[in-house]
Specification:
375 residues, alpha/beta, Rossmann fold, four-stranded parallel β-sheet, 32% helix, globular
Length: 375
Amino acid sequence: MGGLLNNLSLRAKRGNLPIPKSWPHGLSFPRKRESSKKTGFRVKHGMTKVTLLMNFLVAGFSLILTFSSPEASTITYNDKLGRKVAIDVPVKRAVFFISYELIPTLGVWDKVVGISRWAYDNDLMKAAKPDIEKTIPSVGSGSDVNIEALLKLKPDLVITWTFKPETIRFMEEKGLKVIAIYPESLEELHDVMRLHGRLFKREKQMEHSISQMEKIFKLIKERVSKIPDDKRKKVLWLGGKPTSVACGIGVTNDVFKLIGGINPASVIRQRNADIPMERIIAWNPDVIFIWGNASYRARDILNSSQWSSVKAVKKGRVYKAPEWSTWSPRLAPIALWMAIKTYPEYFGDVNLNKATDEFYRSVFSIPYTKVKKFE
């Protein structure tokens, strides 16, 4: 095929997560360091007050709960843009521009009055709610909000991401209550999931989902702990274009550590970077993964003369991830798939399809056969 970088269209498809061409991809997110904060919880029950002061690490946000009754409470959320937002919970009218794959996990379809247009193309959302386009109106996306349509919905809360702070400010000026999320690690993803549980008073459902994720993570850790250091594989994650790689900060690098892989790009202390082909050849990765929304395929890399000297290409170990959101419990089966592809000899008795099906049924209440499969 030769000349992949010249012949391929490098446009990233907009899939279940609306990421512009110039933005980070796959499992890794833009870099933003958050400091640990002291967070206070004040609880009121009738005439009795109990104040709990706790020091703890919550990556990117802190919560303050003030209960006025067993049913209702107020959460003060410090979001990734440093904004402090007081939210009455449980939320009854929500608009999701992001994190909408948590809706079937929580079972809060009746609380959703608007959704990102990208949810209409999401395999999980269509499987969990086949009539989604007819029953939940779209209000654009987090990067291009239809403000008139949004205002008509009169939401209690708008959940979006941090890509366009000016859009968030504009929504606030119109009187809307908005929170901006952006999980930047596995730990932060769990924190954001727990936040959604609190927002809708569905903590038990969310803890169940997290426990199912941890069940898969535990299996992975147990298997890769047996791998000697000198047998560890070098792995790369390619993004919207073949020379864009996930680096040393972010969820991708967390997953590589989880599966016992060595990310040669981790020496670059940022989320993603465009790397010269010569450097990728020098790294000589054993296994290559491609972001699911990239416009090119695994065989494009495998058939390219530019990549022919790379070990992963010589061995046919280039794999494209499914178009699944990674701000979702679905990150767990993605990690298992990556571990199996990287170290098949340590996971020979693991039935990926069975494990993934059990996960989907337990977390999303649908079978794996209803969504897009791993390649």
